[in-house]
Structure prediction request, 257 residues.
Amino acid sequence: MGKLTIGCFSSLVGSTSLDFAIKLSKAAVDKGHKVDLWLSGNATMLSLKGQKAFKDYSALAKPVQDLLATGNFQVTACEACAAARGYHKQDAMEGVKSFSMDWYLASTFTADRVLHIGGD
Amino acid sequence: MATKKLGFIIGTLPYKIEGSRLAMTHAISSQTVEIYLEDGDLVEPVVCFIGDGVLNCLKGQQAMKHYGITSIEQHIKNSLLLDLKVLICKEDVDKLGIAQDALIMDAEDIGGETAAQLVPFSEIQKALDAADHLLYC
Prediction:
């Protein structure tokens, strides 16, 4: 089985790119692959605990927790991008890691495929 | 012992969104990636400015003065100082009527020896073909 690394810059609310990234992660994990999800820039919003699910906004905390429970998915937020937005380790959802940008590049090194979703 | 090439493709405007800045900071972070890799393994980025992204390469950016943040110009110079390969699409520069002397082509003022390259898109295509992974920012 392979390893997919996904990087995303887009925010949890205001874009559906993270929704796509999580759906793709689930599809890959369901097929037996491993997935690393890197959150940078506005995407670090997904790392926050205490997200409330409203029908008008993307709500991804539960699917992220379900994916983490499989053991084949890890999600890591860019430490500096998060801190710049006032998100600190104590604010992070359980299981979400925090590293500097070189972690992402290292993940791409061992990935069979990389999907990077840039932009806002 | 292996080297993986990452192609960062920057097509977004500077300052309007964070994409180009994040592309540069991620590319520069290749300098410390070894701490996560086996001995001898490397990640080698190539940074390609295309489309509206070439506007990131304009000289004389005043980001510190106007926004209180480091400029994309400084990030490009830092990447040249670190000997990263920086390619700028000539066709897109020409389309926007930008003269070559308006572009950040070197980092000599901070001691850099590597220069950016203004090249036809066909050369950028070759660099991207040689990359193991592409990251469109």
Remarks:
- Residues 3-117 of chain A form a domain with the Hypothetical Protein Ychn; Chain: A, fold (CATH 3.40.1260.10).
- Residues 51 and 61 of chain A are 7 Å apart (CA to CA).
- The longest strand of chain A covers residues 3-8.
- Chain A has a mean pLDDT of 96.
